[in-house]
């Protein structure tokens, strides 16, 4: 069969163009996924929605669940007639790909049965997160204990919360407190930011400024947005008494780093409930700085951003417990 060489050249050129286009679209979807999840984890729900929609429409399960969560949160306080219930559609798509948390959000009998089936299979293989999911399905504390014992950090933290909220589980106050401390310490030492925060705000650490300071810096290094803000406040003298002593953490002033950290948070988290307070504190700190110092603070912020993971609230995956 005869084929003109110019036709082959044109065909190969077209195929190369199509391949490049497909690759570019795939890269764009991945970039949207990354950006959307970063914004979602930071609590920047409005800004995350457009990015998550791109990735969710492309079939990414994690983005589908996150987008559904964004819509659910947005519509929580709306009147029933004003709700779109679009979250259910995205939960359903994520659930169809085996997302247990999406199945739990759907919460109909068939979804809960499927969630339990999926979680049970993984739990039988020793998956600590699946054990936590079984706790969320059954509310059987035994599953939560198993999750914690399996080393799942979120399970350890939630177990501490449950013990703290339901005193009937451990009636003796001393035993209950020591049990909570034990689980928080395990999760904190393994790097779970929320456990670090709670652990460092319970006696005796809450009275030990060097220890509190150390835990705060560890959380800030994870780029926990609230810890970064607190770190900036400490370095900026926000917690100083009339004698110039930081009574919260014992930091020495470093206005350039302080400005940089607070500015970084403000520049990235405009939906934060702490935004206005942070903006006011930053303006007060800036009064004692030169223009050169302020620019140096912004340079420090950019270097911090480059050398740390994305800012995050480190929210729990499914539970609304605080």
Average per-residue pLDDT, rounded, comes to 93
- Number of H/I helices: 16
Distance between the termini: 73 Å
Largest sheet: none
Shape: globular
Uncertain segments are none
Q: What proportion of the residues is helical, as a percent range?
A: 55-70%
The secondary-structure class comes to mainly alpha
* DSSP strand content: under 5%
Could you tell me the radius of gyration in angstroms?
A: 24 Å
- Strand segment tally: 0
Order of helices and strands: HHHHHHHHHHHHHHHH
Structure characteristics:
about 325 residues, mainly alpha
Question: Could you write a compact summary of the structure shown?
Answer:
The protein is an all-alpha fold.
Task: Describe this protein's structure.
By secondary structure, the chain is mostly helical. Among the domains are: 151-207, no CATH class; 210-315, no CATH class. The protein has helices spanning 5-42, 45-57, 61-75, 86-96, 100-106, 109-124, 128-138, 141-149, 153-165, 173-189, 193-200, 209-221, 225-235, 255-268, 275-286, 291-307. Helix 14 (255-268) packs antiparallel against helix 15 and helix 14 packs across helix 16 (291-307). The longest helix has 38 residues, at 5-42. The protein is globular and about 65 Å long. The model has no long low-confidence stretch (mean pLDDT 93). This is Sel1 repeat family protein. InterPro entries: F-box_motif (IPR053301), TPR-like_helical_dom_sf (IPR011990).
């Amino acid at each position: 069969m005869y084929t003109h060489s110019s036709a082959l050249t044109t065909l190969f050129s077209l195929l190369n163009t199509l391949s490049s286009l497909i690759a570019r679209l795939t890269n764009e979807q991945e970039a949207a996924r990354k950006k959307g999840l970063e914004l979602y984890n930071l609590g920047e729900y409005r800004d995350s929605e457009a990015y998550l929609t791109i990735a969710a429409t492309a079939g990414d399960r994690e983005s589908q669940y996150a987008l559904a969560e964004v819509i659910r949160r947005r519509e929580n306080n709306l009147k029933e007639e004003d709700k779109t219930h679009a979250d259910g559609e995205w939960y359903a798509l994520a659930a169809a790909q085996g997302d247990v948390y999406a199945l739990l959000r759907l919460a109909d009998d068939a979804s809960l049965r499927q969630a339990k089936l999926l979680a049970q299979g993984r739990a039988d293989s020793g998956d600590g997160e699946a054990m936590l999911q079984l706790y969320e399905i059954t509310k059987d504390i035994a599953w939560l204990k198993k999750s914690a014992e399996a080393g799942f950090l979120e399970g350890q933290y939630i177990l501490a919360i449950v013990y703290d909220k339901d005193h009937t589980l451990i009636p003796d106050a001393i035993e209950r407190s020591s049990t909570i401390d034990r689980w928080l310490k395990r999760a904190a030492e393994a790097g779970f930011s929320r456990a670090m925060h709670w652990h460092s705000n319970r006696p005796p650490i809450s009275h030990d400024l060097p220890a509190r300071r150390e835990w705060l810096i560890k959380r800030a290094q994870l780029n926990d947005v609230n810890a970064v803000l607190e770190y900036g406040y400490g370095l900026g003298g926000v917690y100083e008494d009339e004698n110039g002593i930081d009574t919260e953490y014992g930091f020495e002033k470093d206005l350039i780093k302080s400005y940089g950290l607070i500015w970084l948070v403000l520049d990235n988290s405009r939906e934060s409930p702490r935004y206005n307070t942070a903006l006011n504190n930053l303006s007060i700190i800036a009064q004692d700085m030169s223009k050169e110092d302020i620019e140096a603070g912004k340079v420090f912020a950019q270097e911090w951003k480059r050398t740390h993971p994305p800012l995050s609230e480190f929210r729990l995956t499914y539970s609304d417990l605080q």
